[in-house]
Specification:
Elements lengths: L10 E10 L2 E11 L15 H9 L3 E9 L2 E2 L5 H6 L17 H8 L3 E3 L3 E3 L4 E2 L2 E2 L17
Antiparallel strand pairs: 1-2, 1-3, 3-4, 5-6, 7-8
Amino acid sequence: MASPDFVEPLLSFKNVRAGYGEAIVLDDITFEMPERGSLAVLGRNGVGKSTLLLTLMGFTQLRRGSIVWRGTDITRMPPHRRAQVGIGWVAQEREIFANLSVEENLTVAARPGHGPALGPVEEPRRIHGERSAPGRHCHRSDRPARSG
């Protein structure tokens, strides 16, 4: 029986082995991250940092192990369902709308749907009468670009 102080981790990887095709990139990865915790993933190029995130999101071949998100095993859950329960990634690249704030860029990337972790997700709001969507460039000349 679990102690009353036991708190389910936000995310856990247990003995995860994953990669692309025949190439194994992650081998026997195990960790837990608590709710409101943080995790730093450090390493030189090519050691699996991006593969770890892509595996969490369901975009690699998971050969062994399990991934649990908020107490639910998501190991075999398809990527679109993982997004619906609140898993996403904002990449380091500058593929953003330069004239929008960070909050506005994240709002633009939101998709209609419902995720138990987040509650209802609203439709992306309209900017200058057009729906903003990732990959579409909306020009906002009414104010200067903001960096954060």
